[in-house]
Write a structure and sequence with these properties.
By secondary structure, the protein is α/β, with parallel strands linked by helices. The protein has one domain (about 10-495): Alpha-Beta Complex (Amidase signature (AS) enzymes). About 35% of the residues lie in helices and about 10% in strands. Strand 4 and strand 5 (about 150) form a beta hairpin. Helix 2 packs antiparallel against helix 3 (about 55-70) and helix 9 crosses helix 14 (about 425-430).
Length: about 500
């Protein structure tokens, strides 16, 4: 097998399709591809702290096996054969940590692969390791007491988002061609936006959640597993592999997947909605939504109008949907099935003796308070069902809503706590179970990624991916982050500690 040229930098930028094509032509060795990414992952992780554990020995053996399969030839080679990837630590990978960043799960490892991981392996993907998450996965700052805090590759003083923050950081830095995350309130889309990569939250039920922790079967279509990648085509290639019901997840549905390449942009109707009437959206993010709409119109789409006021009840609808699903209490999850004493942990936080992070305890306290408003939240769930029907009627089979993925670009570490409900920009669409693709569309004045969220009706994942592809062609797409360009915060030794 002849060596690839311009290694390793070209490999750290190339889309999945280009990598697979090079391996099929035997212009690139799967071992060479793995070695380049493993080396870069090790280098950038010393700064970003995005990886919980690696399996480089086993992965390199799998890359050698992929090389042998390519050498043997044939027309039935798996679609992702030899492509390295990383997996969010909340999904089970056999023999790898599955702690969800929770101290009570410190010794927990995956006893078997999650359905999604098993499907990726069958497609030939090579799992390099598992990536960091917030404690319990319910916050948009990737930090826990077991594995420390993950940094944004564009500026380590800032958060990469969460809960799939480790994935967003590794893909943005070029250390992983694609990653697998999960999303119950923005956990794929916020990291994708903050780190400047593509991310897709599938339609509710399109991808089975079997092997994800936590998921007791009651989260329904609000929780979804999906890909992060360098291009919209990467997302599509991975989504085809992981989609479809298994025999275990009762919420999984046999949605029909259509090829985004078959979407005619002249049939696309774009509805830019740069806010929800309640959340304070930065001017740069609002402008990014409008610029994305202009770019799609330039590519052949038509512009529609939708009032921001229609989304104004998003926060109530989100919490109402959680209540309706009967999702397990967060205080129980933090104790791995045994409810933590919230008041005691709050007091211990003040003296620095708590085993939990501040966002985790605050979230548990907030959940306890909202439990007293069951009647209000039940009514909100009713409003959510009405909004779902209304928006699906407006969007139809060819419409997309353009919306901010968050109120602003990546904030400094910890500061997102000052505005804890800004995740509603994404969380609303979990409640509605709509597919949503985040696409990078440029940078703000500080050099931080700007992104737009592209939302379609349920089952119309191909439409949101096609729109992301059009924006990539119009606006330039993903750029690899150069890790080490910024100085770390003087608080880095405190922020990035491990226990």
């Amino acid at each position: 097998m002849s060596p690839a040229r311009n290694l390793p930098d070209d490999l750290l930028r190339a889309p999945v399709g280009v990598l697979v094509d090079a391996m099929r032509r035997r212009a690139l060795s799967p071992v060479e591809l793995f070695d380049a990414h493993a080396a870069e992952l090790s280098r950038v992780d010393a700064v970003l702290n995005g990886v919980v554990a690696t399996r480089f020995g086993a992965a390199r053996a799998e890359a050698r096996a992929a090389e042998a399969r390519y050498a043997a030839g044939g027309d039935d080679l798996p679609p992702l054969l030899g492509v390295p990837c990383t997996i969010k630590e909340m999904l089970k990978v056999e023999g790898m940590p599955n702690t969800a960043g929770i101290p009570a799960r410190r010794e927990t490892v995956g006893e078997a692969d999650a359905t999604v991981v098993r499907r990726l392996r069958a497609a030939g993907a090579v799992v390099m390791g598992v990536t960091n998450v917030p404690e319990g996965g319910m916050w948009m700052e990737t930090h826990n007491r077991l594995h420390g805090r993950t940094a944004n590759p564009w500026d380590p003083r800032r958060t990469p988002g969460g809960s799939s923050g480790g994935e967003g950081a590794m893909v943005a830095a070029g250390a992983s061609p694609f990653g697998i995350g999960s999303d119950v309130g923005g956990s794929i889309r916020i990291p994708a936006a903050f780190c400047g990569v593509y991310g897709h939250k599938p339609s509710g039920g399109l991808v089975p959640n079997t092997g994800h922790w936590p998921d007791d079967g009651r989260s329904g279509g609000m929780l979804t597993i999906g890909p992060l990648g360098r291009t919209p085509d990467d997302l599509w290639r991975v989504l085809r592999v992981i989609a479809g019901p298994d025999a275990q997840d009762r919420a999984a549905r046999p949605w029909s997947l259509h090829d985004p390449a078959a979407v005619d942009l002249r049939d696309l109707v774009v509805y830019p909605v740069p806010g929800n009437g309640r959340t304070r959206i930065s001017p740069a993010v609002r402008r990014a939504v409008e610029d994305a709409a202009d770019a799609l119109v330039d590519a052949g789409a038509r512009r529609g109008h939708l009032s921001e006021a229609r989304l104004a009840r998003g926060l109530e609808i989100y919490f109402g949907a959680l209540l309706a699903q009967g999702v397990a209490k967060y205080a129980d999850l933090l104790g791995d099935g045994v409810r933590i004493p919230i008041g005691r942990e709050a007091a211990r936080l003040l003296t620095g003796r708590s085993g939990h992070t501040l966002p985790a305890v605050v979230t548990a306290m907030a959940e306890q308070l909202t439990g007293a408003a069951d009647g209000l939240l039940e009514r909100a769930a009713t409003h959510g069902r009405a909004l779902q029907a209304e928006l699906e009627s407006v969007l139809g089979p060819n419409g997309v809503l353009l919306h901010p993925p968050y109120s602003r670009t990546a904030p400094r570490h910890v500061t997102a706590l000052a505005r804890p409900f800004d995740f509603v920009c994404t969380g609303l669409f979990n409640a509605l179970e709509f597919p949503s693709t985040v696409a990078p569309v440029g940078f703000d004045a500080r050099g931080l990624p700007l992104a737009v969220q592209i939302i379609g009706a349920r089952g119309r994942d191909s439409i949101t991916l096609a729109a992301a592809g059009a924006l990539e062609r119009q606006l330039g797409g993903w750029r690899r982050a150069v890790v080490g360009r910024h100085r770390a915060s003087p608080l880095a030794p405190l922020l990035n500690y491990r226990r």
